[in-house]
Amino acid sequence: MVGGAGRAGWRSVAAPRWPALLTLGLAGLSVPLALVNPTVSAALAGAALTLALYGHHVAAGPARRLYRLAAGIAAFAVVLLVVLAVSSLYTVEWNQHR
User: Fold this and answer.
1) From residue 96, how far is each of 9, 84, 85, 92, 93 by CA, in Å?
2) What is the largest CA-CA distance in the chain?
3) 52/73 Cα distance (integer angstroms)
4) pTM to 2 decimals?
5) Nearest 5°: CA angle at 38, between 44 and 89?
6) Which one is predicted more confidently, 71 or 97?
């Protein structure tokens, strides 16, 4: 690194908030979409989780908190998708054995 500015040099610069807000929007959209179209919701949640984890790693200040919030919402969407998939499998099994 030139001048010894490692990772701390990146954190000292305030990151713009619009990428964090975009990531937060993707994560927020993926939750209600899980009930309508799980495939699109999984793609949005995966993209939002990836962006949020990377953004949380490199951002500083308020943007970092927004990335953390987006990561939590995207993780909730992923868990919701898994619960919906498992309950759907059990419903299919239950209907076949009735």
Assistant:
1) 60, 18, 17, 6, 5
2) 71
3) 10
4) 0.74
5) 140
6) 71
Residue type, 43: A
> Which pLDDT score is estimated for 76?
94
Model pLDDT, residue 13: 55
Cα separation, 6 vs 68, in Å, equals 22
Cα 55 to Cα 22: distance, rounded to the nearest angstrom: 11
* Pair of tokens at residue 33: 């979409």
Question: Which pLDDT does position 1 carry in this prediction?
Answer: 46
pLDDT at 50 over 60: yes
**Residue carrying structure tokens 């993707």:** 26
Asked whether 49 and 31 are in contact (CB, 8 A), the reply is: no
Which amino acid does the sequence have at 89?
Answer: L
- The answer to whether 23 and 70 are in contact (CB under 8 A) is yes
Measured distance CA(81)–CA(74) in Å, rounded: 11
